[in-house]
């Protein structure tokens, strides 16, 4: 399945408190920025790739991606990033069929993730398709219909909505389960603390 009509959104707008602050995606993993590993996996799965990050965009310039800051103030969490991506898509690529979001602290997500999420969403006419592994959902790894944009802005601005799963409970959500990889690792292993970074280094 071709996904050239899918916009990919890399979520890097968080504060990385458990890593001691700063830009977690720029921490090095195996001699390269964590974000570089993520871009390598995400780029072939989508037609367009953008980065949601706040602050000076110049620090990401060598990745060659459009950098889009949150469209709502106050570090409102990943939902703010998702709204940002949907609004960027409406303004810049309104003919896109879907948007898919990726966490930028999980460098091992499946290379067929977007195709599998889309196949499931379209087969069930879902509004959102969300990745799962080991009986856990990963709501930042999800496929989103562009038509959700207006409702999400209302929820964020007027209802102060912050939790993804609380908001998506209003819609038809399809969960897609992914197996552990060949090493027995959860493909959605994410790096929150320095020791997680060390574990990822060992894996690589």
Brief characterization of the structure:
This protein has 204 residues and is of the alpha/beta class. The chain has one domain (6-203): Spore Coat Polysaccharide Biosynthesis Protein SpsA, Chain A, CATH 3.90.550.10. It contains 6 helices and 9 strands.
Explain what the structure shows.
There is one protein chain. By secondary structure, this protein is α/β, with parallel strands linked by helices. The protein has helices spanning 34-42, 78-92, 113-124, 149-158, 164-168, 194-203, and strands at 6-11, 28-29, 32-33, 48-52, 67-68, 98-103, 128-133, 136-144, 173-177. The protein has one domain: Alpha-Beta Complex (Spore Coat Polysaccharide Biosynthesis Protein SpsA, Chain A), CATH 3.90.550.10. The protein has six helices and nine strands; from the N terminus they run E-E-E-H-E-E-H-E-H-E-E-H-H-E-H. The strands form two sheets. It has a seven-stranded mixed sheet, sandwiched between helices. Strands 2-3 form a two-stranded antiparallel sheet. Strand 2 and strand 3 (32-33) form a beta hairpin. It starts with 5 loop residues before the first strand and ends with a helix.
């Amino acid at each position: 399945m071709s996904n050239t009509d899918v916009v990919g959104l890399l979520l890097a707008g968080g504060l990385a408190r458990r890593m001691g602050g700063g830009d977690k995606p720029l921490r090095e993993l195996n001699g390269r920025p964590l974000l570089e590993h993520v871009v390598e996996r995400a780029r072939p799965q989508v037609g367009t790739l953008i980065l949601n990050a706040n602050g000076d965009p110049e620090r990401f310039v060598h990745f060659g991606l459009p950098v889009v800051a949150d469209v709502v103030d106050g570090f409102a969490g990943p939902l703010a990033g998702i709204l940002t991506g949907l609004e960027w898509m409406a303004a810049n690529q309104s003919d896109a069929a879907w948007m898919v979001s990726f966490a930028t602290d999980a460098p091992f997500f499946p290379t067929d993730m977007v195709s599998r999420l889309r196949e499931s969403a379209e087969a069930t006419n879902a509004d959102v398709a969300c990745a799962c592994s080991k009986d856990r959902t990963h709501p930042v790894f999800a496929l989103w219909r562009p038509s959700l944009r207006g409702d999400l802005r209302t929820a964020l601005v007027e209802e102060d909505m912050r939790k993804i799963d609380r908001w998506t409970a209003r819609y038809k959500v399809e969960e897609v389960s992914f197996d552990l990889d060949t090493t027995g690792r959860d493909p959605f292993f994410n790096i929150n603390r320095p020791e997680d970074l060390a574990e990822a280094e060992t894996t690589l």
